[in-house]
Design goal:
alpha/beta; single chain; 5 strands; 5-stranded parallel beta sheet; about 15% strand
Length: about 170
């Protein structure tokens, strides 16, 4: 049985993230989804709380009929200490066999710790970008088509667009 770990900020969880999760679930029996930078919220780069991102992911995967037994969602706060990061992640997450990332620093840290690391798949990054989606939200442009329906519902439930506009001063 193979368990993988995928870490992302998911600000917001978008269709590219959803496709990555679906692809990794073909490779892994179970997937741990780590919500990175979990302590940050209410900023332009990180407008959503860890709990809100958890709810976006859960609602999106529920809509796809992905059994909750196939994944675990874990908030991961930044500890700002590269030498300790892998040990920290291993201590707060369930045991995993492979970490999936596109981040060169994370790849190096995980390899140096003797843990298997693979490059995560990429799905239309030029289309599905949290930065671009947040920019569309700020400018009152269509953003919903880039985000799974479950995540759209969650964002609207807690007034995520209005919050983002407020914290940036665009309301």
């Amino acid at each position: 049985m193979t368990t993988g770990l995928l870490v992302g900020r998911f600000q917001p969880f978008h269709k590219g993230h959803l496709e990555v999760v679906k692809e990794l679930l073909k490779e892994c029996d179970e997937l741990i989804i780590g919500i990175g930078s979990a302590q940050y919220s209410h900023t332009e780069e990180n407008p959503f709380t860890a709990a809100e991102r958890f709810a976006m992911i859960r609602a999106s995967l529920d809509d796809e009929k992905i059994p909750r037994s196939k994944y675990t969602i874990v908030p991961i706060t930044d500890i700002h200490n590269n030498a300790m990061w892998v040990n920290y992640v291993c201590n707060i997450c369930p045991k995993f066999d492979v970490l999936f990332t596109r981040n060169p620093l994370v790849t190096r840290l995980v390899k140096e710790a003797g843990i298997a690391v693979e490059e995560q798949p990429e799905f239309d990054r030029h289309i599905y970008s949290g930065t671009k989606i947040r920019k569309a939200m700020l400018e009152d442009k269509p953003w919903e088509k880039f985000v799974p329906g479950g995540a759209v519902r969650v964002i609207k439930q807690f007034g995520g667009v209005e919050r983002l506009q407020s914290v940036v001063g665009n309301d």
